[in-house]
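re the bet — no i am not wrong, look at it urself. input seq straight from the record:
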Amino acid sequence: HQLATFIQDALRDEGFEDAAMAREVPLSRISARWLAAFERRRRERGIEILVEQSGRLTFDGPAGPFTVTAKADRIELDAHGAAIIDYKTGSAPSAKQVVEGFAPQLPLTGAILAGGGFGNPSDPTQLVYVRVIGRGEGGKETDVSAPSKTNTLSAAQISAAEFDRLKEAVAAYDDPARAYVSWEAPQFMGNFGGNYDHLARVWEWMVVGGGDNEGEGDQA
């Protein structure tokens, strides 16, 4: 009950009015029950919890030092290392997307953690997304580093691989001849394209077929 009250108070502080609260109050109660069970389950391991921690790690690139930063929603320290948790209200990336490098947030946070960017170096042991939605069971906990058919790597290995991928990307883009493409991974861009489509003239050249009408986009 107290946790549900905290959620409702936070919503009101953010400007939710009575009409919206009529919907949010039942959802907050469902979320509170799920969160209470989640906390009991996580804390049974005898962990130290750190929240909203900022970390940074610097490495040398061809053009000079490069610093990567992260803000972890929650880090759980235990005798084996640390679990990194990110809270979501929307959809979380899949384990496959994380392993293949399309969702680098948690792995890079793990790399910063392993490199001492949050204080004492600690090996990442879990990369966890927690989605709190208030519908159904109220929430969902997904360890994207857990062994599966599509993943045989540990959290530490996923983090190290993502850090290597970042260093390779920095080296590539430190080359003045490297182009900055506007659609690096279009399958994950949603329905609205990218922020630089107008500069790349994506609609003209790729969708409308501007290659057959060269120059029309420049006419008054």
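see?? The first helix runs from residue 2 to 13. told u. also Strands lie at 48-61, 64-78, 81-88, 124-132, 139-143. so pay up
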